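hey so i finally got around to running the thing on that chain from the lab meeting. sorry it took forever, my laptop kept dying and i had to restart like 3 times. anyway pasting the input first so we r on the same page abt which one it is
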Amino acid sequence: MGTIIYSISIHPSMELTMDSKGLKAAFKAISTQVDSLKVVPDELGWRLYAMGADKVSMVDARINVEAFTEGYEVWPGFCVDVKVFLDALAKAGDTAKVELGEGYLVIRSGSLRLVRPLLADIEQVIRVPKVENTIEAMLSVDDMMDIAAGADSKGKYQRCRLRMMEDRLEMEVSEYQDPYTTTVVIPKERMTLMGGEGSCLYPLHHLLTMISAIPKGTQVDLCFDENSLLEMRFDVGHTDILMVLCPQVEEDGP
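ok and heres what got predicted. didnt touch it at all, straight out
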């Protein structure tokens, strides 16, 4: 399987060896939520985080330090256009060397050499707030995709109520001014319930976008609570990703 080697020009001895498929999958998932990322290396690896332009969804991800080879150092962060970086990786193929310099990023693969500018520093870094959600379940994203497709089969609904019960997870969708019209269910046999019962209302479009961004076959840790942020945690390759969605106020309209 191909690998991607990162060589940091600021610290030439620092290299990152990574499964390129996993890296591409991680950035593809992140790109559905945000356009740009703040990357902050620390002792645990590279921290990636940002808020969506509509301020409804957020991403907090980490490329774990285990993905780095010897010589790892903590150095100043940078900002990257997610889609530009993903496009460059796609053009480079499965094996590439990526160098980060002063204001630029270079991807090399064979005779191919792509130079991409880094973004100016994000003025306000948005960190995902810590919440104490009490409703939690582990389930396959495939089941979540099935439940999402069933809930929005007509493509006309705007909001979704997630309801965790003792024996099932329900997704209840509606239009703004109408009573709930469609309900689909994941039974407890298809997931691992870690505790809690209750419900919360979320914007359906953003929820479906989050679900569709997660690679098939991935196990997702789903957490929420009454009037609280929805958290979806999952791993892609060497990257741990947390996607967060803000709840929808009951009286909100389109």
